[in-house]
Amino acid sequence: MRMYDIILKKRNGGALSEEEIREMVREYTDGGIPDYQMAAFLMAVYFRGMTDEETAVLTDAMAHSGDTIDLSALPGVKVDKHSTGGVGDKTTMIVAPVVAACGCVIAKMSGRGLGHTGGTVDKLESIPGMQVSLSQEEFLRVATETGIAVTGQSGNLTPADKKLYALRDVTATVESIPLIASSIMSKKLAAGSDCILLDVKTGSGAFMKTAADAVELAQKMVAIGEHNGRRTAALITNMDIPLGRQIGNALEVEEAVRVLRGTGPKDLTEVCLALAAELLCLAGKGTREACLEQARRAIDSGAALERLAAMVKAQGGDERCVYEPERLGRAPYSLEIKAPADGYLTKMDTAGIGIAAMMLGAGRETKESSLDYLAGILLEKKTGDAVRSGETIARLLASEEHRFADAQRQFLQCVTIGPEPPQPEPLVYACVTAGGVEYR
Ligand code: URA
Description:
By secondary structure, the chain is α/β, with parallel strands linked by helices. It has helices at residues 3-11, 18-29, 35-48, 52-63, 92-101, 120-125, 136-146, 159-169, 177-191, 211-227, 249-260, 266-282, 288-300, 303-314, 320-323, 350-360, 404-413; strands spanning 78-83, 105-109, 148-151, 195-202, 231-238, 246-247, 333-338, 343-348, 376-379, 386-387, 392-398, 415-418, 428-433, 436-439.
């Protein structure tokens, strides 16, 4: 196989054979194909796409490019959830303890922040002592003891995705349906759960900007999961507005805890309940209505909050932060952003707001950047809210005051104020299963 011929074939719109794909993934993982050739291939895929067969083979080759996790020793149904990425998306820290409190085991591999999107692993690391780089033995021990374990993409799990993802991030080739589907599903297949729920985000803060693209991505991922014997479904959820009111690592842990105490923002609570109910349904825990009720009870009874604390403790973290999130600390500097005019907040460029949070230190500008766990944004107003000129619409938080000027300029560019309120958008657009698409 010559990598040159593979690039040429894809550039000209051809379909690759199974053998070509498997050999390419193997050689790239082993260092035999240079990044410049793989980057050219990824760009050809970006423009030419891949057939369903090519995408399925690529996913399988990536899933088996390193170790896989065997969860069969754990009792009960093993479930997993994965979000395609967004701003203020702290759903894993809520949904995982809820479904664990309802009798499922959730042993999950999560990612770090990427570009404008945050990552669960970074958020959890804002809890002092928290270990998110678990060996397979530790991962299984924590999941057995507490019903939840969350680890980063540690060890030798899906090394092909690790390399490809880093390369896509710097070559403008992230937003490709076959590449996203194979990246996410290779990790999910390698992580070994019986049931997989995908939270496919759509809107200005998501990789998929339209609901139609999000549905297409969801259908591809559901087909891959089901083909590999995993019960798989996807919810298409709104990422045109940041989720909740807090963006940033420790800030998002604090807000997740508030949802688990029953005092969190309505949008975040509603999306998390919908995700938890769908995951419980996949796990065979009853009808959607019955599962929604179980999820609500897990929050109301405090059982889900206790699960989160147990997981934090089992992974070496200070579980007191779950009961007293003020222990996470607050950034020493804050800046209020005022509305420039009277009217309604009609639009938020959510990816741009994620970038403002990154500029404050909540995300990485380069792979090497260190994080300020306390930095971030508190949203006082969101799309649809009425605002008066001079009223505070957001507070920026940072540990370094010099970060405010650029972040404030960026934030203000991302909000639009108009005379009329915008049409409200649904939080959940559709549910995609092997049986089809159900619009809500
Ligand atoms: N999340 C992933 O894990 N991979 C992608 O390609 C996009 C989002």
